[in-house]
Amino acid sequence: MSERHFVLSLLLNKMGKSIDELSQFEGRKYFQKIVYFAQMKHFGLDMGFGFSLHPHGPYSEELSECAKLILSQKLECEKFAETKNFNPNAAKGLEQLKKFASTKVSGLVELDFLESAATLHFLWASPFKHLASVERKEQAIASCHKLKPHFSIHTCQAVFDELERSKLIAA
Question: pLDDT below 50 — which residues of the chain?
Answer without folding.
Answer: none
